[in-house]
């Protein structure tokens, strides 16, 4: 509630400061110009210096840290009393045995893409068979089987189709029409939010060595997304406050939303047809990524992920945990940035896509906490600063993380592994 | 081995010097006794020239072949490839097979090219067959995109047709010679932008041919969206991918430098086009590099003191066909971004590990067969000795004729042998 109000207040004050309306209809000349430029919005260089992002991840983290459950009494949970992390809401999160069971396909005896195709294990043993099964799943258009299948990682050539199958996206004329309708909306109306989106993309994707190529697609998708009212209706049954503020447009009943620009860029590696890219992105946001920006008690919500991460780290690498706290580097402050963007921008794209395979496969974001834990373990011997962790991560292979995750049930082994690396 | 390697260079680049220093090599001057000289192309000309040249001793190695220009000058490269194709055709080799319209099936990897002014009339004939085509004019002896322009009308190159009385371009000076090639106006676009590939290839010997491909090549993107529109023919930011040009564009970004790794390209193509066509594309790229080296091998001075690291420029069209644009003898060692610096540093490091075994004083009589462990990020692209030794049982498809031979040491991909889809 109050988080929402803060965003709204920030937006409104920006409007007043800059004398820009929240929304306005574009004059015809401007509409024509935008239509011509639709495929290369990246080359525009409007003066965005006065626009501040409405909130940064660290602001959001501050909010989460200050969450308290008024019904909670300190005496209730012993284990929570010893929780020394930043999150102070005692949500129920899975422990290692439960995680192990949940993520059973990540166990050591099951083949994984990312490990077994890059070692001395002959490809026939795993990869070829895995690809064959994937092709079969696609031929039969079996969505449930596809979801099960990607738990072991998806072959690059099959991934686009598999994700579309899992998310139930197909390219019907109505879908293309829907996207075109949103595009028209963008052409006709200018929103303050657009500038914020533009600025965020310019700061992040256009400087990213994987995603800069797709800069123009990002504008197209995000500008449409911020006008997509069907997305807003989805949140009607989300118990907690949605991640956005509703701005009553002067132009009528349409509602505009302020989203913190989420993770489109990696999807550009899979889909280059704009309406398909849009649909996939919207579906992924609505199913998963919105939970990263909203405050809820859902096990895949950002609060639970933070708590899960802190609990795992404190349980399995206590010395590291305490040491970091002592030097004033609370681990969550580092991993939060990764999790809130589902690692987009922090992992090499091929590794990222393998991670997102598991998000789809397990229908859960908990793997983000697991991945964060693993990265900390990996860096355990090398941590001297936050900068070096971020640098190491780009080189990390997912094979190591899965291996580690499955070892997580054996703390002694885990420590040994961490010491080796 | 006693003594440290004594090095000289006339190229003041940190990626080079840092690599020499980390090996504990000793810097000397050109006039002293040196073992390793990383020289510019001007210097190699002097070392091997008739007037100023001198004999190299057994413990001296240089980084260029004396007549590398057979491959690295645009006109000579095309000449050699044309000659090579004709020879294969004469032998009846299946490699020289043509399709119904007379195009080579396997050896058509260089855009139609003519030398100017020598082939002017031939060019005009070709031009008139498809008058709406665009052609690209490139000076033979320049680099970094200098002096290049596009034309779509004969009038734009009238000066190359004039007789010797009026045109200064009729001189034999290498600086004024141009090549004109059919412009690839349907390049593969990603994010709406044109790009080309820069791949590094190390040749340690031409006879037998032994060459290595650096795994970490990159794509260079134009900052401006591509359009084949004739109104933009003058806009070099749309058409030329050279970093030397792009970095003056308004949108040039100094963090990523408009570059993508080849692995990114592979991931993107596999994800959007499928694995088979992507593998086929990369196989073809390897194929055309090997063929270009085979084409010049007979005319190369295979001096045993020499090795060379080439920068290959390749463009992929929208049918996923790769085209060889040119080969650079002195690929830029300037770093435009942090990633770049790391890449070039590692490139030189791996190159030195192969060219100067164990980092010790070289003996040019060695067999130039480094052990697998020192290859670093290089992979064997083609090893003629191994290929011949393997015999027919390593061939993928049965074919007549000795001249093809099996591709013995294939490119290895993540520890496995890649089944090439070559012919």
Describe the fold and architecture:
The complex is a heterodimer of chains A (421) and B (423). With 421 residues, chain A is mainly α. Chain A is built from 21 helices and four strands. Chain A has a domain of 185 residues. In chain A, strands 1-2 form a two-stranded antiparallel ribbon. Chain A has a two-stranded antiparallel sheet with strand order 3-4. The N and C termini of chain A lie far apart (45 Å). The C terminus of chain A is likely disordered. In chain B, helix 1 crosses helix 10, helix 4 packs across helix 9 and helix 8 packs across helix 9. The radius of gyration of chain B is 22 Å and the shape is globular. Chains A and B meet through helix 8, helix 11 and helix 17 of A and helix 8 of B.
In short, what is this structure?
The complex is a heterodimer of chains A (421) and B (423). With 421 residues, chain A is mainly alpha-helical.
How is this fold's topology laid out?
The complex is a heterodimer of chains A (421) and B (423).
Chain A: H1 2-18, E1 23-25, H2 28-36, H3 57-65, H4 78-81, H5 96-102, H6 127-139, H7 143-149, H8 156-166, H9 173-188, E2 189-191, H10 192-203, H11 215-225, H12 229-234, E3 246-248, E4 255-257, H13 274-287, H14 302-316, H15 318-326, H16 331-340, H17 349-362, H18 366-379, H19 386-393, H20 398-407, H21 411-420
Antiparallel strand pairs in A: 1-2, 3-4
Chain B: E1 6-9, H1 14-22, E2 26-27, E3 36-38, H2 41-47, E4 61-62, H3 69-72, H4 74-91, E5 113-116, H5 120-129, E6 135-139, E7 149-151, E8 178-182, E9 189-190, E10 193-206, E11 209-214, E12 218-221, H6 236-239, H7 243-246, E13 259-261, H8 262-273, H9 275-296, E14 308-316, E15 322-328, H10 338-355, E16 378-383, H11 384-390, E17 412-413, E18 416-417
Helix pairs in contact in B: 1-10, 4-9, 8-9
């Amino acid at each position: 509630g109050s988080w929402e109000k803060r965003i709204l207040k920030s937006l409104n004050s920006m409007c007043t400061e800059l004398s820009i309306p929240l929304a306005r209809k574009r004059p015809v000349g401007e509409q024509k110009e935008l239509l011509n430029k639709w495929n290369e919005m990246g080359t525009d260089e409007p003066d965005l210096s006065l626009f501040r992002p409405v909130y940064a991840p660290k602001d959001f983290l501050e909010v989460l840290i200050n969450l308290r459950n008024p019904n909670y009494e300190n005496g209730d949970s012993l284990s929570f009393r010893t929780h020394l992390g930043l999150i102070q809401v005692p949500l129920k999160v899975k422990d290692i045995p439960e995680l192990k069971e949940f993520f059973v396909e990540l166990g050591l005896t099951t083949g994984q893409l990312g490990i077994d195709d890059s070692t001395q294990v002959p490809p026939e043993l795993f990869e070829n068979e895995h690809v064959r099964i994937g092709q079969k799943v696609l031929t039969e258009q079996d969505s449930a089987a596809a979801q099960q299948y990607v738990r072991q990682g998806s072959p690059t050539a099959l991934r686009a189709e598999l994700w579309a199958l899992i998310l139930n996206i197909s390219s019907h004329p109505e879908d293309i029409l829907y996207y075109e309708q949103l595009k028209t909306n963008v052409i006709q109306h200018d929103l303050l939010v657009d500038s914020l989106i533009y600025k965020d993309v310019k700061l992040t994707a256009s400087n990213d060595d994987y995603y800069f190529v797709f800069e123009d697609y990002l504008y197209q998708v995000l500008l449409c997304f911020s006008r997509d009212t069907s997305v807003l209706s989805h949140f009607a049954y989300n118990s907690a406050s949605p991640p956005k503020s509703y701005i009553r447009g002067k132009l009528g009943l349409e509602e505009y939303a302020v989203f913190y620009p989420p993770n489109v860029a990696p999807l550009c590696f899979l889909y280059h047809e704009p309406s398909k890219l849009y649909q996939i992105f919207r579906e992924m946001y609505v199913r998963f990524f919105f939970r990263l920006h909203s405050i809820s008690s859902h096990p895949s919500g950002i609060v639970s992920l933070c708590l899960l991460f802190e609990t795992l780290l404190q349980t399995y690498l206590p010395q590291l945990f305490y040491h970091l706290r002592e030097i004033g580097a609370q681990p969550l402050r580092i991993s939060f940035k990764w999790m809130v963007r589902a690692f987009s921008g922090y992992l090499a794209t091929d590794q990222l896509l393998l991670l997102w395979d598991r998000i789809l496969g397990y229908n859960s974001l908990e793997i983000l906490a697991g991945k964060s834990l693993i990265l900390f373990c990996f860096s355990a011997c090398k941590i001297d600063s936050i900068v070096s962790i971020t640098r190491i991560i780009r080189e990390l292979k997912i094979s190591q993380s899965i291996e580690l995750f499955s070892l997580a049930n054996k703390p002694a082994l885990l420590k040994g592994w961490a010491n080796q690396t | 081995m006693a003594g440290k390697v004594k090095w000289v260079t006339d190229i003041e680049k940190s990626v080079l010097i840092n690599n020499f220093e980390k090996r504990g090599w000793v810097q000397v001057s050109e006039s002293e006794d040196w073992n390793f000289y990383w020289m510019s192309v001007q210097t190699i000309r002097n070392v091997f020239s008739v007037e100023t040249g001198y004999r190299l001793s057994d413990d001296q190695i240089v980084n260029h072949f004396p007549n590398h220009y057979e491959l690295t000058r645009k006109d000579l490269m095309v000449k050699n490839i044309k000659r090579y194709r004709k020879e294969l055709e004469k032998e009846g080799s299946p490699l020289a097979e043509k399709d119904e319209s007379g195009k080579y099936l396997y050896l058509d990897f260089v855009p139609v090219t003519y030398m100017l002014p020598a082939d002017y009339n031939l060019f005009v004939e070709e031009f008139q067959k498809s008058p709406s085509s665009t052609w690209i004019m490139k000076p033979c002896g320049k680099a970094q995109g200098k002096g290049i322009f596009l034309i779509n009308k004969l009038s734009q190159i009238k000066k190359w047709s004039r007789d010797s009385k009026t045109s200064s371009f009729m001189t034999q000076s290498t600086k004024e010679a141009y090549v004109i090639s059919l412009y690839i106006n349907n390049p593969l676009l990603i994010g709406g932008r044109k790009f080309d590939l820069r791949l590094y290839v190390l040749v340690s010997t031409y006879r037998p041919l032994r060459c290595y491909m650096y795994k970490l090549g990159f794509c260079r993107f134009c900052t401006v969206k591509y359009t084949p529109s004739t109104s933009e023919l003058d806009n070099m930011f749309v058409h030329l991918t050279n970093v030397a040009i792009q970095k003056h564009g308004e949108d040039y970004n100094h963090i990523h430098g408009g570059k993508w790794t080849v692995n990114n390209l592979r991931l993107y193509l596999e994800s959007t086009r499928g694995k088979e066509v992507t593998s086929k594309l990369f196989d073809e790229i390897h194929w055309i590099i090997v063929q270009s080296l085979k084409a010049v091998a007979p005319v190369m001075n295979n001096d045993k003191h020499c090795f060379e690291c080439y920068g290959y420029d390749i463009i992929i069209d929208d049918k996923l066909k790769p085209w060889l644009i040119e080969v650079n003898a002195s690929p830029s060692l300037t770093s435009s971004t942090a990633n770049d610096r790391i890449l070039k540093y590692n490139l030189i490091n791996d190159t030195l590990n192969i060219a100067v075994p164990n980092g010790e004083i070289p003996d040019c009589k060695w067999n130039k067969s480094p052990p697998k462990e020192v290859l670093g990020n290089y992979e064997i692209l083609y090893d003629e000795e191994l290929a011949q030794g393997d015999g027919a049982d390593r061939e993928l498809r049965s074919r007549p004729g000795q001249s093809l031979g099996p591709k013995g040491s294939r490119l290895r991909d993540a520890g496995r042998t890649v089944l090439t889809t070559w012919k």
